[in-house]
Amino acid sequence: MFDSLWTYRYFIFSAIRNDLTARFAHSKLGALWVIFNPLAQVMIYALILSNVLAAKLPGIDNKYAFAIYLLAGTLGWALFSEIITRSVSMFVESANLLKKINFPKVTLPTIMLGSCLLNNLILLSVILVIFTLLDHSFSMTIFWLIPVTGTLVLFGFGIGLILGVINVFVRDVSQVVPIFLQVLFWFTPIVYPISIIPAEYVSWMSLNPLVPIIEAYHNILMYDQAPDMTSFLHLNVIGLAITLVGLLMFRRASPEMVDVL
Amino acid sequence: MSILRVSQLGKSYRQYASELIRFARWFGLPFKPSAEHWVLNEISFEVLKGQSVGIIGKNGAGKSTLLKMITGVLQPSTGTIQVNGKIAAILELGMGFNPDLNARQNVYHALGLMGHSHGAIDDAMPDLEAFAEIGEYFDQPIRTYSSGMQMRVAFAVATAFRPDILIVDEALSVGDAYFQHKSFDRIREMKEQGTSLLIVSHDLSSIQALCDKVILLQNGGLIMEGRPETVLDYYNASLAEHQNQKVRQVEHGVNKVQTISGTGEVTISKVELLDHDGQCIEVASVGQELTLAVGAKAHSNIEKLVLGFAIKNHLGQVIYGTNTYHTKQIQHKIAAGSELSFLVKFPANLGVGTYSVQLALCSSDTHLENNYEWRDLAYVFEIANVGRDFFAGMAWLDSAIEVKKAS
Question: What is the ipTM of this complex?
Answer without folding.
Answer: 0.74
